[in-house]
Specification:
With 1238 residues, this protein is an alpha+beta fold. It is 28% helix and 28% strand. It comes from Rhizodiscina lignyota.
């Protein structure tokens, strides 16, 4: 059978059935056209089709817009339209409009659809053709007649909407009162959903099965392909189907009777194409009754294909081709060759839905972080998703249909159980995979006892945690990511000590995943018994309202509710460990840790939310049965009243960057923790450095600006302007701001317990002391392990002395060169100065040259990297950049001195040579000037961060002025007319750093303060280099233009893989092509849909040629004049910026202090509400004079990227607001009065 009149097919559907139809088209050599809404842009049905067209309307309405679909068909020269199931598949008007437009509808005739669309007419046809029907009525004219007819039939009865389908418009009634109550509901639902208010009654059989026969009508005759059983349903929608029906198999002769009735019924309609005749089967007598005919492809058609060796979609296309060609369809001789006497083996299908079984199967939208579908001969999975696909609330939450085919039903059950347990995986939002797995494995299913009421009594209790409320900021964390570089932060618990102990207490590996809870805890219902422990800063903990201790192994039983309250301090984080962890949280870059600022890891790349469903190990109830209570001795609980953090000098507190006074200030100040501290960084408020230099040279106008380098992260004390931040666990791996000092690795856990408004000293210690402190921590953890598993005798556990990390390290002297390990002077043009700097006890920075971008240095760094990689020294992570190589090492594997010696020896051995040709890729990127997203970002910055600066309100205008250019256009053309080489990839999410291969390039300062958000794809300028922001993320470079985003954590889009989720690599050559805003938005839509193909070709980076260009430019009068004008302009803009910065600082200072005497008078005999912690007042939800009730939300604070709700106290019930002391935008400290009640 071949095709003669159809060449192109439009698939008028979405999801798995659309993908299924597209594959059938491909198999037959047909071109396919898919349609999609914005929410479906990343669906497989979009990428699989030869052509894809965006619909005009979002959501279901888009797929029901007949006129839009017909327009698309005509615009794309479509010959046929296949509708799949649902949407327009049984819309006779649509089928007719397709035909009227000169195309063929791949399905039955409009007349057949109309006849079967009305259930009462379908019933009449069954009676006329001698097919048994369920005792019932014609259409009912009134509620009273419905009651009378129901009493004649005998209860229970089923009220049915005549236009209904898919389980909608059905209500079971057990009494006359039920009929009265539900009649109008069914009538209304029929009118709303199906534009038909007709209602009729049928007898309801409580012990029944749902069996259907697959029929197919060709040119002359109707044939069948056996039956399927679809009895297991929830809310009248099928969940599990199988072919053949085990009940029919057990009744000799029944298949012949069923299929004969089905064929006769379809033949009476002169039915064409695929259809299904559905029957209700009485389990007690074996009698069967006609229910309805579905004039379309069924969801579960695949199991028939597996058992009968046919491709029903292919047959539908062949039938439509014959109809269009005028032959009527597939000849009966061809159809009969496909017919079998019975099924070949057994097949079972389960439907995987994104729904929460513990919440009555409520839809559970979200991002599928991991989709695993193995290639397996016995397994078929029809789906539309891949890792990274978002399940939206617009559509039915069907994720996939998992089908297994084997020689016997018993073997099929075994293989399906294995497939659901070990093979397929859909991790992300809650789904029913475990639910259907347990059904398949149940004895009743094995025996074939699968009535339509099966799920009403199926004993399913999820082994999971149901999140009732999530607290202020709760995330999944584990030990963190293995060293990956490229701007992939380590993440993991901010306080690794508390996290490790919580895991030790429950018997987990120390590094297993658990919940990190910040400030205010969650409310969780355990659907299964579990062993838990809560460790960290003190917090009230209760189970079903009864207080339970922290630092203890606890048992929580199925159905119990765990509440973790507000952490009042000291400390701000605690950790909830559950034995077995959370097995359904997927690994992302080798870890389950959440990096919420970058939107990956943990629960769908975000904090835990109310409604989340955290699956536990299936062994959790068994572990709970063997539970033994245990509490950690008080003397082993860490002290969270943190007053000092150990640091080491360097990399940049040396005399060339900071003054002696600065160093004294750094290590003798009690720093105050800022309210906007978070997992990215701990903000420290204190004195500003005096600085030993006036500016950052090529890196920027502020002395804190530095030629970009690899950060000692986490731990580096990073200076942006005169403000400092300690880089935390989600921080960038490089940037262009100096790091004066570095927290030693043994004290990094303390960062996680620093609370806004805490005061903390940075105590300098030596490398030797840092390693001693690491040993102190290791000894302490060992003490905890031994205490939990052993018996303490005379202050020791199995001979190991107990320890609580109370040992103090000696404060070291502050030196002006302590940060510098070694310095080697320049020796000729191609042998630059080399400075080795320490970054705590885990980093060495190798700096080349004099803080000036130099292509010769870039090549020298590359050669050093190659030599180090050949050494294969254990535990090293190399981060090369424009003038520096940062090396992270593990002192347990290689000492600082040994590593220094190794690097120095290798660096010295490099020949002074630039005659190097590096194989690379040439990549052309689209770029647009003045994209609205950039303008909106600048406006947000002005509204929320800083309202005046030399670079506001237009970054391009600033670049024009700072580089002495005549127009904004000229500034943009520097970008489009220059070729760039990528010198580093990192910062966050693989951001490429670009060095211009042209002497006439940009110089620019950086934002001060930096932005909290930058649109993905932004082209930024900082100092003399450019950065491409791969996704939305923080940043400080001037925003010049916008190209496409270039980071895919799931590795699905063209150009990406799971191992390499960034698209650009070091030494790639980049050129930009200008596009309009409209063209950019079109290309961006293609990229987001996974359809954009990068313009990449093979190339060579000739280092010598580039070096010669820059050497010649040093003597070129035109270039020299350009740089002279540029430097003067840059200095002029820097002077303006200095004035504007001082004005802004003065304006934002607390220049309106509260009149203390007036406030004290107001507070006398008044009720107040105070700030629970240092924060910013974001919103005030009441006004003076308002009357409030206890628990009324009065103020929302913002701190640490969290919203903190403040409520009226109990004693304020019925009181009026007397005064609002703190207005939106003001800073408050813990205990500050926010408002006063009468």
């Amino acid at each position: 059978m071949g095709l003669s009149s159809i060449r192109k097919v439009l698939v008028a559907n979405r999801g798995e059935i659309a993908a299924r139809c597209i594959r059938a088209c491909s198999k037959l050599g047909l071109q396919s056209v898919s349609i999609y809404t914005p929410a479906d842009s990343t669906s497989l049905h979009v990428s699989l089709a030869d052509e894809s067209v965006l619909l005009k309307t979002e959501g279901v309405a888009g797929y029901l817009d007949v006129d839009n679909i017909i327009e698309i068909c005509q615009a794309h020269n479509v010959d046929a339209v296949i509708p799949g199931y649902g949407f327009l598949s049984e819309n006779a008007s649509f089928a007719q409009k397709v035909a009227d437009a000169g195309m063929v509808f791949v399905g039955p005739s409009p007349e057949s659809i109309t006849a079967m669309g009305l259930k009462h007419r379908a019933r009449e046809l069954a009676i006329a053709t001698g097919v048994p029907v369920v005792p019932g009525t014609e259409l009912l004219e009134s509620e009273q007649i419905a009651v009378e007819e129901a009493e004649k039939l005998g209860f229970p009865v089923m009220l049915k909407a005549t236009g209904g389908g898919g389980g909608m418009g059905l209500q079971v009634c057990f009494s006359a009162e039920d009929v009265r109550v539900k009649y109008k509901s069914v009538q209304s639902r029929g009118e709303t959903l199906f534009k038909n208010a007709g209602v009729f009654l049928e007898k309801y059989y409580s012990k029944s099965r749902h069996v259907e026969v697959q029929v197919f009508g060709g040119a002359d005759e109707v044939v069948h392909f056996g039956e399927r059983e679809c009895s297991i349903q929830r809310r009248h929608q099928k969940v599990i189907e199988e072919c053949p029906s085990p009940f029919v198999e057990s009744k000799p002769g029944m298949r012949e009777k069923l299929t004969t009735c089905a064929v006769n019924y379809a033949s009476a309609l002169n039915y064409k194409s695929a259809g299904t005749v559905e029957f209700l089967v009485d389990d007690e007598t074996g009698s069967f009754f006609f229910l309805e005919m579905n004039t379309r492809l069924q969801v579960e058609h695949g199991i028939t294909e597996l058992c009968y060796g046919v491709d029903l979609v292919e047959l539908m296309l062949l039938q439509a081709d014959g109809e269009r060609h005028g032959t009527g369809g597939i000849p009966i001789e061809s159809l009969r060759l496909l017919v079998k006497d019975g099924p070949d083996g057994s097949a079972i299908e389960v439907r995987i839905y994104a729904e929460n079984p513990s919440r009555n199967f409520a839809p559970s939208p979200g991002i599928l972080q991991e989709v695993v579908i193995p290639v397996d001969g016995s397994l078929r999975v029809d789906t539309w998703v891949k890792s990274g696909q978002e399940i939206t609330s617009y559509f039915d939450p069907l994720i996939a249909k998992v089908m297994v085919h084997a020689s016997t039903r018993a073997e099929t059950i075994i293989q399906m159980t294995a497939a659901l347990a070990y093979k397929v995986s859909f991790k992300g939002p809650a789904n029913n995979l475990d639910f259907v797995k347990r059904i398949i494995a149940s004895s009743d299913f094995g025996k074939g006892n699968t009535l339509t009421t099966f799920l009403d009594t199926f004993p399913y209790r999820p082994c999971a945690i149901d999140v009732l409320s999530a607290g202020a900021f709760t995330t999944v964390q584990d030990v963190g990511r293995p060293k990956k570089g490229h701007g992939i932060p380590k993440s993991g618990p901010m306080d690794s000590i508390s996290a490790r102990i919580a895991n030790i207490l429950v018997g987990n590996d120390q590094d297993l995943d658990l919940l990190e809870i910040t400030l205010d805890g969650p409310e969780l219902v355990f659907n299964a018994a579990a062993v838990i422990a809560i460790c960290g800063a003190a917090v009230p903990v209760s189970v079903d309202g009864k207080e339970v201790p922290m630092w203890s192994r606890l048992r929580i039983d199925a159905g119990q509710k765990l509440m973790i309250g507000f952490l009042k301090g000291p400390g701000i984080r605690c950790y909830l460990a559950v034995k077995g962890g959370f097995p359904n949280i997927p690994l992302v870059f080798g870890s389950k840790a959440t990096t919420p600022s970058l939107k990956y890891g943990g629960t769908q790349g975000r904090q835990v939310r109310a409604g989340d469903y955290l699956e536990l190990s299936e062994q959790s109830p068994n572990w709970a049965e063997k539970f033994e209570a245990f509490s950690l001795p008080v003397e082993l609980i860490p002290d969270f009243n943190i007053k000092e953090v150990y640091v080491m000098q360097g990399p940049h507190d040396s005399a060339d960057i900071m003054t002696a006074e600065d160093r004294e200030m750094l290590y003798n100040t009690l720093w105050r923790v800022g309210h906007n501290s978070n997992r990215t960084g701990i903000k420290l408020i204190g004195p500003a450095p005096k600085w030993a230099r006036s500016d950052g040279g090529e890196a920027g106008s502020h002395p804190s600006n530095y030629l970009d380098f690899g950060y000692p992260s986490p731990g580096g004390m990073n200076w942006g302007g005169d403000a400092s931040t300690i880089l935390a666990f989600d921080s960038p791996n490089f940037g262009g701001l100096i790091c004066s000092s570095t927290v030693v690795t043994a004290d990094l856990w303390k960062l996680g317990q620093l609370r806004p408004d805490d005061k903390v000293a940075l105590t300098p210690i030596s490398l030797e002391s840092a390693l001693k402190q690491k040993h102190v921590v290791a000894t302490y953890i060992k003490s905890v392990e031994n205490t939990v598993s052993g018996i303490m005798i005379n202050g020791t556990v199995n001979g190991t002395p107990a320890s609580n990390m109370s040992t103090k390290q000696l404060r070291s002297d502050i030196g002006d060169t302590t940060a510098i390990l070694k310095s080697i002077p320049s020796n000729g043009t191609l042998r630059p100065r080399v400075v080795y700097r320490q970054g705590g006890d885990a980093f060495i920075l190798v700096e080349f040259g004099e803080q000036s971008a130099d292509i010769g240095i870039v090549s020298r760094i590359r050669l050093l990297v190659e030599k180090l990689e050949l050494e294969k020294a254990p535990g090293l992570l190399l981060t090369p950049h424009i003038g520096c190589l940062t090396i992270e090492y593990e002192p347990e594997k290689i000492s600082q001195s040994s590593l220094l010696s190794l690097i120095d020896g290798l660096e010295t051995s490099i020949e002074a040579n630039v005659s190097i040709k590096i194989p690379c890729r040439e990549i052309r990127l689209p770029v647009v000037l003045d994209h609205p997203a950039i303008n909106e970002c600048i406006q947000r910055y002005m509204d929320t961060t800083r309202n005046k600066a030399v670079y506001l309100p237009d970054n391009v205008e600033y670049l024009k002025k700072a580089n002495a250019m005549e127009s904004r256009r000229q500034a943009f053309e520097i970008l489009t007319k220059t070729e760039f080489v990528v010198v580093a990839v990192g910062f966050l999410c693989g951001a490429p750093m670009l060095f211009p291969l042209a002497p006439k390039a940009f110089l620019a300062q950086k934002y001060n303060p930096t932005r909290v958000s930058t649109p993905g794809g932004t082209v930024g300028v900082g100092g003399s280099i450019l950065s491409l922001y791969p996704i939305e993320q923080p940043g400080g470079y001037m925003m010049l233009a916008r190209t496409l985003e270039m980071f895919d954590p799931f590795g699905n889009k063209p150009g990406f893989t799971t191992e390499r989720p960034w698209v650009i690599e070091p030494y790639d050559l980049i050129k930009f092509d200008e596009v309009s805003v409209e063209e950019y938005d079109r290309l961006d839509a293609e990229y987001q849909a996974g359809q954009y193909e990068w313009d990449v070709r093979e190339g060579v980076f000739d280092v010598e040629q580039a070096y010669s260009l820059f050497q010649a430019a040093k003597k070129d009068p035109d270039v020299m004049a350009y740089k002279d004008r540029q430097l003067k302009a840059l200095n002029q803009q820097a002077a303006i910026e200095k004035t504007l910065y001082e004005e802004w600082m003065a304006e934002t200072a607390d220049d309106e202090p509260v009149d203390e005497s007036h406030l004290n008078d107001m507070l006398r005999n008044s009720i107040t509400v105070a700030a629970p912690m240092a924060a910013n007042v974001w919103k005030v939800e009441v006004a003076v004079g308002d009357t409030v009730e206890a628990g009324h939300l009065v103020t929302i604070l913002e701190a640490m990227k969290m919203e903190i709700n403040v409520y009226a106290p109990t004693e304020a019930k019925g009181k009026k607001i007397k005064a609002i002391i703190k207005k939106p935008g003001t800073m408050v400290n813990a205990g500050d009065v926010l408002m006063v009640f009468e």
